[in-house]
Amino acid sequence: MTASLAPIKRACWSFAPCLIKLISLVLILCTLTVYQTAAAARAGQNAAVKAQIKAAEKRAREEAKALADEQTRLAAAKYRDGIYEGAGYGYGGDIKVRVTVKDGEIYTIDVYEHSGEDEEYFKLALGLKDKIIEENDPDVDAVTGSTFSSEGLLEAINAALEKAVKK
Fold first, then answer.
1. How far apart are CA 92 and CA 132, in angstroms?
2. Residue 9: which region, alpha, beta or left (left: phi > 0; alpha: psi -120 to 50)?
3. Rounded Cα gap, residues 87 and 97, in angstroms
4. Distance from CA of residue 67 to its chain's centroid?
5. pLDDT tens across 97-142, in order?
6. pTM, rounded to two decimals
7. Which CATH class is domain 82-164?
8. Any idea where the domains of the chain sit in the sequence?
9. Which stretches does DSSP call E strand in 49-149?
């Protein structure tokens, strides 16, 4: 029985080196596939992380610019925050105002006395308040047809703002 198995054993041993090489090749290919998959996953993660870092850097730059702009705006503000009163002489007497400055800008102008003024003309002059607030500057022209009331109102506003000017 041993004599009859001898040719089979010889045949198996002749294929053994090929079989070992084939198994080695399959193991190498499996290892390369796993490595390539891991590298691709890492590259995808790296791209996502880089995108997050880039977005965070952009947000930080925008926030820094906004802060710098706000600081510049406040430094350039002409007026100190607060409530200031002033008086001027209009068509029929004293005009008294209260000017509120907020964040360095003219925020509100309230007229609390104008008893001697003609109401029709004074209503025309009151249009100056919105223009002054919008431009953050009291250097506006008087209203035609309401010159004395306009000039009195401007005088009162300027008197109040003189107290608010940064020195």
1. 23
2. alpha
3. 6
4. 8
5. 999 999 889 999 999 999 888 899 899 999 999 999 999 889 898 8
6. 0.58
7. alpha beta
8. 1-76, 82-164
9. 82-89, 94-102, 105-113
